[in-house]
């Protein structure tokens, strides 16, 4: 028999374009079960839990939930707090006080870890709890799952951005460096490859955190492409590392911000792009060298979303509630590819997901370590969804010259 | 009677999302008139003309032209060359050699100047020519016209970006600075105001090149907003100037690139955003301060376009051909607002447009010089087109605390 008690939902880590689809999925599905007597939402993730900052989502209209589902970024707001054992005990204390029996935490591998510790605290405290980690991350770096909700929409943004960049740089020529989010995993940067339609389209070079970055090799690569096409478009993960494993941004520059977890702050600054631009200008003597750091635009841009990503984000929310109710289970929801393209969902043990990071597998990266393989393009394309615009070039013939001697 | 001869089209300056609508409009319309015996396209703008690098667009399929029309950035590629009298004489020589009788140059105020000089050369040379400047620029800085093709779509990108930023920054709090294109005119940066739906939505501060930028005033503004909302979202034009009229980017940093026309290179670098970020961190002691420079993403992003902008860009192309044919006229095509929202087109004298820059009128900027007025929002909204997504927040009631004493 299903547990009787309240449902609590929280959202953690960086926002995505479809994270509120998951929120709506959980709220709307939980309303169907009489045992789930109320549905609360914690404001600012685990911070909201320990401070008892809850919204009573039972009183939110279904219609507004559908509107919020279409809105990017965490509607319950988020947090960068990474709870330790003590913090998780606090969480558990609050869950018990409010008679929360179903806990859904939408987040990445850190959030899975939190759910795992809270679940253990509940077991230790002899408190019957269903604790589910519901996946989201634009980084696509959760183990076991084929991919994660949020990735497809961010990947679509990156692909569309590079389609435009191809056209823009071609019109005025030069070298362009686009810096894409991704601390450890290069999946998001790699999605730029979908922008290649015509044989000379960029990105001509793609650098990922999974491979060592050597400035000299980078300069040689850029020169080769530029000499061939008169232009060179580069996609770079913000997290690229040098041979010693240090982020390139710190090896080139010393005054870089470090966050509470000791992570170097990679986003919200144009530093890496500017530094690589400078190297190309100085060493290759190419005059038009430009760089953009995609930054926060790629994460919550309104109006750039994958329909596949939306559907799946909604379903992981729904399925989480169903599995907690019908299977009386705790765990982490995972997505599995069953065809090209179809998926199904399962529940993994929390400890299998918690605090683990998936990197790009070797078969997705080319031998030179400066681009992706067709296997990756085949993998990623369906995730970007339907209706992706395809750029078209003119194909009219050249006119013979009258004045100029060729 | 209409002139008999060839049509030549060129595209100049920075690309836009709809510049190929104008190209398609000219090509398809010119095919209707038997006197326009062939339609050529110059590759890389005026550079293509002097080098006789032409595509015979008469042989391009209408279907592919429609596909290209939907593709952002200049399909004929572009140029930054700003012709002088001698260069314009070269252009005229080529036009005459190829029996070009209709010359359409799609571009901004520099392009209008080129058309003006070429037209005078034709008159001096007793050569019957119809020379039309067809407007485009994301900067919206052409005089006489209510607005320019290309602006609406770029403005839509900026508005959608800030909608997402509002949601993203709210989820994790802090200060955010978005740097938007605009050397002299602030129209594009000002469009960020359309992102404000809820009363506390950003951008809370908007800084334009039309007003002096004072770092101290900026810091006071940011502090006031941050103290009130726990977050502050700022939109800044890349071209903001200090009291001496110098771009802020040069007054803060000395190693800035200067282009062939002596213009400071403002785009393709995160320098201004990084410098303002640093000021806020140091002086206001706010820890989470992030900046994005929208750079080239805002100009040719595939999949972010205003339908109004598309229609008008197509029509200015069509109308240009019609006026050259039916009115036997030369000049610069202008857009005039006739209702809310309807437009019509006229032909202005080339010297009225050439090399002049329109700035934001005073009634569009607030008294403090750190935001826009409702008059501007009323002006800009229709240009962004239909189907602009509207973000939605949760409105569920708070749950009373059980453990915490308030």
TrEMBL record, chains A, B:
Pathway: Carbohydrate degradation; glycolysis; D-glyceraldehyde 3-phosphate and glycerone phosphate from D-glucose: step 3/4. Its cofactor is Mg(2+). The active site is at residue 139. Its main location: cytoplasm. Keywords: Cytoplasm, Glycolysis, Kinase, Magnesium, Metal-binding, Transferase. It is found in: Cytoplasm. Its EC number is 2.7.1.90. Mg(2+) binds at residue 109. One of its GO terms (biological process) is fructose 6-phosphate metabolic process. It catalyses: beta-D-fructose 6-phosphate + diphosphate = beta-D-fructose 1,6-bisphosphate + phosphate + H(+). It is an enzyme of class 2 (transferase). Catalyzes the phosphorylation of D-fructose 6-phosphate, the first committing step of glycolysis. Uses inorganic phosphate (PPi) as phosphoryl donor instead of ATP like common ATP-dependent phosphofructokinases (ATP-PFKs), which renders the reaction reversible, and can thus function both in glycolysis and gluconeogenesis. Consistently, PPi-PFK can replace the enzymes of both the forward (ATP-PFK) and reverse (fructose-bisphosphatase (FBPase)) reactions. This is Pyrophosphate--fructose 6-phosphate 1-phosphotransferase. It comes from Sporomusa malonica.
């Amino acid at each position: 028999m299903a547990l009787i008690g309240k449902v609590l939902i929280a959202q953690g880590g960086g926002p995505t374009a479809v994270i509120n689809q998951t929120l709506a999925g959980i709220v709307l599905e939980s309303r169907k079960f009489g045992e789930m007597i109320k549905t609360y939402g914690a404001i600012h993730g685990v911070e909201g839990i320990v401070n008892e900052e809850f919204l009573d989502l039972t009183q939110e209209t279904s219609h507004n939930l559908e509107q919020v589902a279409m809105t990017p970024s965490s509607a319950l707001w988020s947090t960068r707090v990474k709870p330790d054992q003590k913090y998780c005990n606090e969480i558990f204390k609050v869950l018990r006080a409010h008679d929360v029996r179903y806990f859904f935490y939408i987040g990445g591998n850190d959030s899975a870890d939190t759910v795992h510790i809270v679940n253990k605290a509940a077991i230790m405290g002899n408190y019957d709890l269903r604790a589910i980690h519901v996946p989201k991350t634009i980084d696509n770096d959760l183990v076991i799952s084929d991919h994660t909700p949020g990735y497809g929409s961010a990947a679509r943004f990156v692909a569309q951005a590079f389609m435009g960049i191809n056209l823009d740089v071609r019109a005025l020529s030069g070298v362009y460096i686009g810096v894409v989010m991704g601390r450890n995993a290069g999946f998001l940067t790699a999605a730029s490859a979908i922008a290649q339609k015509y044989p000379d389209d960029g990105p001509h070079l793609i650098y990922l955190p999974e491979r060592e970055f050597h400035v000299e090799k980078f300069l040689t690569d850029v020169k080769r492409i530029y000499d061939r096409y008169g232009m060179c478009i580069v996609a770079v993960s913000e997290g690229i590392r040098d041979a010693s494993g240090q982020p390139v941004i710190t090896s080139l520059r010393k005054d870089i911000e470090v966050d509470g977890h000791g992570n170097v702050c990679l986003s919200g600054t144009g530093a890496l792009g500017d530094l690589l631009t400078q190297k190309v200008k100085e060493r290759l003597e190419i005059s038009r060298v430009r760089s953009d750091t995609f930054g926060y635009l790629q994460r919550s841009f309104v109006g750039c979303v994958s329909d596949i990503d939306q559907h799946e984000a909604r379903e992981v929310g729904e399925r989480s509630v169903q599995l907690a109710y019908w299977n009386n289970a705790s765990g982490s929801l995972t997505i599995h590819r069953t065809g090209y393209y179809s998926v199904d969902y399962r529940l993994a043990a929390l400890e299998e997901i918690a605090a683990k990071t998936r990197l790009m597998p070797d078969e997705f990266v080319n031998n030179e370590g400066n681009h992706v393989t067709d296997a990756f393009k085949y993998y990623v394309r369906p995730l970007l969804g339907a209706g992706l615009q395809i750029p078209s070039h003119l194909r009219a013939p050249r006119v013979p010259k009258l004045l100029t001697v060729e």
